[in-house]
Amino acid sequence: MGRTLIIAEHDGLNLNAATAKTLTAALAIDQPVDIAVLAADADVVAQAAASLKGVETVFRVERPENEHPLAAMLAPQIADLAAGYSHIFMPSTTYGKDVLPRVAALLEAPQVSDVMDVIDAHTFRRPIYAGNILTTVKAPTDCPVVATIRPASFAEAEASGNATIEAWQSDQTLPTHTRFEQLHSAQSDRPDLQSAKRVVSGGRGVGSAENFDVIFRIAERLDAAVGASRAAVDAGYVSNELQVGQTGKIVAPSLYLCFGISGAIQHLTGIKDANLIVAVNKDPEAPIFEVADIGLVGDLFEVIPELEAALSE
Amino acid sequence: MKILVPIKRAIDYNIKPRVNRNGDGVVTEGVKMSINPFDRIALEEAIQLRERGEAEEVIAVSIGVASTEQQLRNALAMGADRAVLLTTEQAVQPPLAARALLAIRAELDADLVLMGKQAIDDDANQTGQMLAGLWDRPQATFTSRLEVQSGWLNATREVDAGLETIAVELPAVVTADLRLNEPRLIKMPDIMKAKRKPLDERPLEALNLSMPAQLEVLSYETPPARQGGYRVESVGELVDELKQRGVI
Questions:
Q1: Interface membership of A104 toward B (CB under 8 Å)
Q2: Which residue among A11, A289, A310 sits closest to B228, beta carbon to beta carbon?
Q3: Predicted model pTM
Q4: Burial class (CB in 10 A: 0-12, 13-18, 19+), B51
Q5: Cα A43 to Cα A51, A171, B35, B88, B212, distances in angstroms
Q6: φ, ψ for residue B82 (rounded to 5)?
Q7: pLDDT per residue over A144-177, tens digit each?
Q8: Is residue A11 part of a domain?
Q9: CA of residue A91 relative to chain centroid, distance
Q10: Interchain contact A142–B (C-beta under 8 A)
């Protein structure tokens, strides 16, 4: 019988929701699932991982080198951990995309990227050509199945579990050729874009970085994450980590509310898993209206204050 | 420094790809093929490094059908000094591509492999990382800013959490993200000059690689299109709709 190992994604304190989504994909295969937390101090994250329903064992893999997620450090440890596992999964986030192919190379296995459907233990459906085509692939049975899981395609596993937590000693010599320097992130108390239930996005139509304040305001009102189109990011209105789309983040909220976004293909690729797409744009011909569930033709600078007023009633 | 830039031939990004009638392939006949856009960004960066005096030579390499020569000629016209084409009729998946690049990198003794973060056809996003893993050298993926500093590179990476800067020691693999640069346009005289630049073509089999484990592709399909909905006339109507659907 097989066994699945998931490598947890975290920032040292919080377990990223993508891990719980990866677990849901793993549980679609009828075999035990363990999670490994590689960190400098894995305590808090390991406990969060142990609370996910369906996990047997959580491994704490603690080394000072694991403080920052560097593929060159993590991959050899994960390849070691992988012994005895038939399946190695990570979320298809920049973290999983960076680390897991390196692990696959060390395990001499191919990788299935962006799994959106688990058909059986070796067969998976995944998007190609930016989601314009879906393909079904079969991983070989004589080497581990290495796969990244597309978070937008799976719900989070419940947090009602009680897995065992064990320490796992890693005594490998790690390379000195890669160093973490710094992480620059726009601090935000708002929900995380990829796991938020609601997302409010702004596009080129917002007009400037200052004007983007109205998007932040309405997002706060709705307890929503803030997103942006590539055009808005390229114009410098907001930083790149807010970009939604093929080359940014793929989101799957229950409500996607967008203002001043025309609806370039590359943006639509990132939002098509949203339950409800609502678009506000002053151009009645904007392509976004072809995919929006609800459209409102109007000036966002008039619509947003009205919306705020209506919400406070 | 010698830079190797892998180039993949892919359906042009302006063209909407279609599944063939049997559902066992994507239509490429009569379809415009181009350099994978992320590879063009990688090539531009390599050329700029040479123009700034950080590198002496930029070599473009591709693995694919014989007509991939077209894309390599374009790479030469953009500014690569020479090119290598490893010809094969088979579909090349990332594990094989990484092994071929590992071999050709060693042969050419390149210090930096600068490539796109992913190809826009299979969207695998694997080859650079696999190459770095097999080579046991550093990787800087999703790079949007690159600086050379006495044998090391400072790479700023576009990650979900923001912009991360790492330092990697050469030799290394760097994969290019969208905002690294804007690739230059090719001018007519450059196309003429490119015809005289060296292009070394040989069969992939000549590298004597053992075939790595691969995925078996079972089928292709077109996803169901998302249907547009309806329009509301006022904010009041919109709020009522959202409330009714329980999303606010």
A1: yes
A2: A289
A3: 0.93
A4: exposed
A5: 13, 19, 46, 50, 38
A6: -155, 175
A7: 999 999 998 999 999 999 999 999 998 899 999 9
A8: yes
A9: 7
A10: yes
